[in-house]
Amino acid sequence: MKLYAPWEKAFNKIATPFEHFIHAQTTTGMILMFMTALALILANTPLAETYTHFFHTKVDISVGAWQFSHTIHHWINDGLMAIFFFIIGLEIKREILAGELSNVKVAILPILAAIGGMAFPALIYSSINSSTVGASGWGIPMATDIAFAISALVLLGKRIPTALVTFLVALAIVDDLGAVLVIAIFYTDQIVFLPLALAGISFLVLISFNRFGIHMILPYFIVGLLMWFFMLESGVHATIAGVIAAMAIPSKPKQTPLDFTADARKLLNQYDKYPVSTDHRMHEEQKAILINMQDRIDAVGTPAARLERNLHLPVALIIIPLFALANAGITVDFSSIGSTIMENVSLGIVSGLILGKVLGIFGVSWLAIKLKLAKLPQGSTMSQIFGVAFLGGIGFTMSIFVADLAFLGNDELIFQAKVGILSASLFAGLFGYFWLRFVSKTN
Questions:
Q1: pLDDT (tens digit per residue) in 330-347
Q2: Does an H or E element contain 316, and which?
């Protein structure tokens, strides 16, 4: 008898790309919880000094005359996280071309809710931190952690209508797009124009690859890596290169589904002509037919879909956990944590992620529905939208990322920001989960 964790059992029979996406985000959320707890444990035990020293160890990479010397923490945040942002770019592109955001009538509610869910937290934070040293952190409470938020919904199982899950996914994707734009526009201190121009030329090369019908991944990888380097040297945060590169990856197949069906049938007929051996080994010609069929499968698929599917696992199991381990470790002094949360930065983040997200997501959704600008997701209620608004207050990954950019070099403010993020995310996640569990059971 096979045993499954609750989220594994729910997705034991995954078929669609959307369900694969949800499963990947759920896996990421579970691992994130573990790695966050591990980082907090390491930072509050005798291993704290070793933990801190490890992530501040410098790693040098030399390529000809070029030499890169950064800490492990820096390589994770600027290097590996570019792959995470690449996945975000692919998700945004998929949603716009074929997902919830491709239909304006369906997309209008999550788009308006996401805009409200970004604007209200930023305004609340700014009102608390106006004219203070923490004023630049207004972008921190704008973000929603899609992995944690979706994990909470998936754990609720059949209590939650599928349309509510797609609403949250579309909202979080728009939220991610907003966070990327905020990072690119507002958290760039100094721009060096020559490397930025070279990054622009690299992007044009990627676009030309797409236009000329190149579906091989390697050329995109090489030029994308160069674009990342130029972006790093330009002063614009290097991870933005990941999002931009994703926009250039082909999303159209080389072969139509009808042609694929005809070719696949021919190949399967050829495959069946060869007798089955007593030891069940394939004939050499059958192996060649299978390779040919794989080529047809690749042709009817797209590089964008293939990359999104193949990269989700390493991002979920390696990159995001490493980011959490490197960034979530804060020394917690329980005797002073109350006073830390009351600091302007922490208070602004907590208020933004909880009050701001609820006002923005739930308030704007309620107004849009009352004004008949949008409709409720099928089978859902305003009480469930209220719960989802709280889940939108889980701002872990992107919020920590923005905090490091907003308060670069100021460890005290970064500490206050992380205390606010972790506290607000924990409360928002638990309240949102139990609220949805209660209202979905009674509705």
A1: 887 767 777 888 999 999
A2: none
Distance (Å, rounded) from C-alpha 161 to C-alpha 379? 6
Q: Contact, 285 vs 274, CB < 8 A?
A: yes
Side-chain half-sphere CA neighbours of 415 within 13 A: 13
- List the structure tokens of 312: 């989700």
Residue 247: pLDDT band (50, 70, 90) is very high
Q: Is residue 198 included in any domain, yes or no?
A: no
Angle between helices 217-234 and 303-314 (to 10 degrees): 60
Q: What is the pLDDT of residue 17?
A: 61
**Angle value at C-alpha 351, between 368 and 43, nearest 5 degrees:** 130
Residue 360 dihedral angles phi and psi, to the nearest 5°? -70, -50
Total domains present in the chain: 2
CA distance 168 to 387: 11
Among residues 321, 431, 393, 401, the alpha carbon closest in space to that of 32 is found at 321
Mapping DSSP to helix (H, G, I), strand (E, B) and coil, where does residue 209 land? helix
Helix (H, G, I), strand (E, B) or coil at 66: strand
Q: What is the CA radius of gyration of the chain?
A: 24
Range of the domain at 264: 257-298
Mean pLDDT throughout 29-58?
89
Same domain membership, residue 273 and residue 163: no
Residues forming a β-bridge with 59: 70
- Measuring CA to CA, how many Å separate 94 from each of 87, 104, 125, 296, 393? 10, 15, 32, 22, 24
CA-to-CA distance for 109 and 91, rounded, in angstroms? 19
- If asked whether residues 264 and 171 sit together in one domain, one would say no
CATH code (residue 158):
1.20.1530.10
How far apart CA 15 and CA 223 sit, in angstroms, is 33
Q: Which of 202, 214, 245 is nearest to 89 (CA)?
A: 245
